[in-house]
Amino acid sequence: MNRNTPVIDLKGVGEKTQRLFEKLNIVTVGDLLRSYPKDYEVFDEPKKISRVKLGEVCAVYAAVSGIPNEKKVRKLTILNVNIADESGSLQLTFFNMPFLKKLLRQGGFYVFRGTVQSRGSLRIMEQPRIFSLEDYRKQTNCLNPKYSLTKGLTDKTFRKAVRQALSEYAFEEEYYPEEILKAYELEDERRAVETIHFPPDVNLLARARKRLVFDEFFSFLFLLRENRRFSEGLENRYRMFETADTVRFLEQLPFPLTKAQKKVWQEIRDDLGGNYCMNRLIQGDVGSGKTILAVLALLMTAANGYQGALMAPTEVLAMQHYETICGYVEKYGIAFRPVLLVGSMTAREKKEIYEKTASGEANLIIGTHALIQAKVKYKALALVVTDEQHRFGVRQRESLAEKGDSPHILVMSATPIPRTLAIILYGDLHISVIDELPANRLPIKNCVVNTSYRPKAYQFIARQVSEGRQVYVICPQVEEGEMEDLENVVDYAEKLKNALSPQIRVSYLHGRMRPADKNRIMEEFGAHSIDVLVSTTVIEVGINVPNATVMMVENAERFGLAQLHQLRGRVGRGENQSYCIFVSAQEKEETMERLQILNRSNDGFYIASEDLKLRGPGDMFGIRQSGEFSFRMGDIYSDAAVLKEASDAVDRLFQTDPDLELPVHQKLKQHLQEMAAANVDFRSI
Ligand code: ADP
Ligand code: MG
What we know:
The protein is of the alpha/beta class and 685 residues long. 39% of the residues lie in helices and 18% in strands. The strands form four sheets. A seven-stranded parallel β-sheet has the order 12-13-11-14-15-10-16, with helices on both faces. A six-stranded parallel β-sheet has the order 17-22-21-18-20-19, with helices on both faces. Strands 2-4-5-7-6 form a five-stranded mixed β-barrel. β21, α19 (561-568) and β22 (579-584) form a beta-alpha-beta unit. α7 packs across α8 and α12 (315-332) packs across α18. The protein is globular, with a radius of gyration of 28 Å. The two termini are 27 Å apart. Bound molecules: adenosine-5'-diphosphate and magnesium ion.
């Protein structure tokens, strides 16, 4: 059994489970073993009822103190029963579990485990799990893995499949040379994978995690180094001159560039006209005005008779860029002949675009990574801009080079990274920083609230809409019931429609809609035929509708701070005062404290560093950060120390044996080649 064995070959995994796994993108045993737990459940000692904290998962050891009371509400059977220990009492509530009525005998002692909530003066534990004391004791203080699941798949099934896989899996032989293993105190891979799924204790878990994080960073940085070797000193084959086009365009724009934008524009012009091929990153917080710099660079390219490509991570964003640029062409008559190329187009539409691209009729090609597929032939591609894109990877560059092009590369990112980390993570790029927002911006006003604030928030939304503004509401899931009790886009939009006056136009957007529908909704929102857009995080990056002034995020506790900051970046893009309302369904102190960081500041750097302080280095269960460096396990902020070690290891390797020719490096070479071929884990696409 190896990485590519399909999961159905595992004992106990039938077709039904196979399909459920497939929903989670788990097709092979390799996928399964690399689906690390998102958290671990620790069965801690049962608590006295009087000590139980609201909102927290805990266990109590108590006696059934009354006779279970059964009610029927429509299709639902509700069973209430009281329990008590010497310190106090609680009510338990079960849904559709009528058989418990017999099981829970008055006077019987059990361990009940669940979350306690308050309803008026009542304290209620809903749907607790029930154990005999003996059974519970057996599991106390173990770390039980919890996985990202889908409806119909339980942790129990998942764990069983993982156990089965671990018992039969043929791990690769150790690929790191002894020297690296020793220097960085790395755990053996097999043990690391076993431990991450079933940790005997927290210390061993930390060791296991370190090995896996190191692996991710190491392969990523190794490929990055290769990329640099490849692109460093590449001659500029498309030397450009500044023309009147960009100068005139800048004069016509309704705003002057900020000082920071001007500086970066100068750097870009120097690159495009210089001796070497450009390889530059523009780093600037959300709303700092990166797009206009891309447009300028692309315009200079077009004016010099070449083609440019603008690549976005989502179709929605690609569409928006296309619209914006067509708008510029119309308004200012600039020299673009733009086309849009996205995966969801029909074969015929694509064919037409391919032809225009190959003939040079189109001089600006905007799209998702459909842009660099083998089928696309360019006439004279001289510049590729990637916006908010997982970095432009080695393989993308190589695939372009194979076609005979070595275009200039410009990467734009809003991920706030301290300089020391940027040097490691963007080791192959020159870095330009936009460290200033346009002057016409008012700082966004924020608030962090609980769900009882909703009626007020809706009033506020209605007022903003009546003043001509637009609103985003973000929910964590698409439809009901994929996960726990989270708000979902479809029902929420309905709820909002009912809560707001009928004149207010509410619509929704999510990633599972057909691309054409997504595009239509975004266009309508852009054209202000929709007032309130309820959406998942598909609008997280890049979307620019300056008239939108309210961002309300439901279940804000579910998102990472960086992601919330990105979401908030969708408002505050024009001259109107903008507002951000973070609604938390959880009132845990830590949650609130975390969200308060956003409340205090609109600065991406500050937020990233405060978040790190709260989570601490090597944080294991922290909420995943969004952004381009979302490794499967590693977190560039809280695992910065491991990142530095991996970088150090790669550096040393490149100093002694850059082509991995020495016998001790053969296994590593093979491993890295396989990783690159399988395109595993690191997001350089
Ligand atoms: P981001 O850096 O997040 O990609 P955008 O490039 O989308 O930001 O810019 C956000 C908004 O700010 C856009 O509506 C853009 O037209 C506007 N903008 C860009 N530069 C300036 C400027 N110098 N002054 C005023 N508005 C600007
Ligand atoms: Mg942008």
